[in-house]
């Protein structure tokens, strides 16, 4: 377990973080969300024992990171925002170097290397010089050095920074796979990605934790409305207004908006007080309508995030 | 010690891989060779011991230049390329980082200095000098180089910029080279103290350069190296976990 208690970081008189307190259980994947300057990187650097907190305590496992940073460093893998890559080194030579720095023996490096190369999909480029690799591959090498010593805690600061959409999907899959064996802390600006990758979100703003919980929990805490989008091909003789009326009759639905039509199907946006996807599906099928697509509106996390950072719902979220 | 050896090997490898290491070696040997031909050998007849002494004078200047060039990048470059984070978040002590980098730079510098060995051999073939004189001179060059490297590492630990590190290093070395002439203008006991602290004149120019081996001079260079490596370690420590 990782525990932060009243952690603060000051640069001179300026407070960069805190006081923040939270706990992260073993095996959990936690996403740090926040605007630029919210304190995400500072918090991650403190966990990685790169920065010493000005106040408070950080405990990783049973070890106090302030009193015994070296012991904690052995148990942590850190991918910083700016990749710590030696451009002149070959990929597997660099990974072995990172492993040796983390006190791995030659034999354990030899055993671990194929696993890391496979997990990061670097096998093909293992003999390449790092400076010749694309940004996506460099990012993978960065992840490789962080997991080389099989740390209990993996800290990834903006792992998808500068990646193209394909590389973002690949990186997301890689993080999903790493979740099985590590406790993972991730920071990102991409809200949907955080939502898909993490079990829990920590929203930071102005150096403090504004809210913590899963996306659904945050929505509930924020008393936020849920938006569901459904694309329906109506039964013969039924109009869009009839379908909207049927949807409005579902409990907790406060509004239904009719969107555009295409190839005989119409998009409806349903605003409700909770999760209604299963009920929507039942109502539509029982009415003889075809459901072509049904999903929660991907902008929900965005609206929660904006509310939190604008301090609109700070009071309700802190409960 | 294990971390020192890991960092030592990586650093030495980076000198051998990068063109910078070869450029510094080539520049030093070229300048040293030209000075040997034009200044040490000269036109007029000289005693071979005098020629050897002149060779070590010019070679010491080249060694100082090469040591500055090799050392100022050692920590500053890690900061500039963000690779310092890898070291900072690994269970490695600051002293191990400094020691690994210093020993790698010293090894590479020793290779460069020893590559000039053919020049004193030319003097030996054509004149009357002993092998001991040559070896003592080279020991002095390596000790002097080590001291300059440690000053450069300290300067490198202070800054993220190579240029700033080079400027700090250069100022410190120039000041330490001028302590002897400065002491000449002052009275005892300040004169003696300043002359004892001088980086070149008393401990190299009056001893190693002339083939004279004094324990005092060895102790001086080892102490200067240790002092600046300690300063470098403390600087790194202050900037690392804060």
Summarize this structure briefly:
The complex is a heterodimer of chains A (319) and B (242). Chain A is an alpha/beta fold.
Structure characterization notes:
The complex is a heterodimer of chains A (319) and B (242). Chain A folds into 2 domains: 219 residues, P-loop containing nucleotide triphosphate hydrolases (Rossmann fold, 3-Layer(aba) Sandwich); 74 residues, Alpha-Beta Plaits, CATH 3.30.70. In chain A, 35% of the residues lie in helices and 29% in strands. Chain A is built from 12 helices and 14 strands. Chain A is globular, with a radius of gyration of 23 Å. The relative contact order of chain A is 0.13. Chain B starts with a helix and ends with a helix. Chain B is built from 13 helices and no strands. Chain B has 242 residues and is mostly helical. The chains are: A alpha/beta (319), B mainly alpha (242). At the A-B interface, helix 2 and helix 3 of A face helix 1 and helix 5 of B.
Cα shape of chain B: globular
Q: What string, H for helix and E for strand, traces the elements of chain A in order?
A: EEEHEEHEHHHEHEHEEHEHEEHEHH
> Structural class from helices and strands of chain A?
alpha/beta
Walk across the major sheet of chain A and give the strand order.
6-7-8-3-9-10
What structural class do the secondary elements of chain B suggest?
A: mainly alpha
Order of helices and strands of chain B: HHHHHHHHHHHHH
Radius of gyration of chain B: 19 Å
Q: Helical proportion of chain B?
A: over 70%
Give the overall pLDDT of chain B as a whole number: 94
Distance between the termini of chain A: 23 Å
Q: Estimate what percentage of residues of chain A fall within beta strands.
A: 25-35%
Task: Calculate the mean pLDDT score of chain A and round it.
Answer: 87
Number of strands of chain A: 14
- Give the uncertain stretches of chain A in residue-range form: 312-319
- Helix tally of chain B equals 13
CATH class category of the largest domain in chain A: Alpha Beta
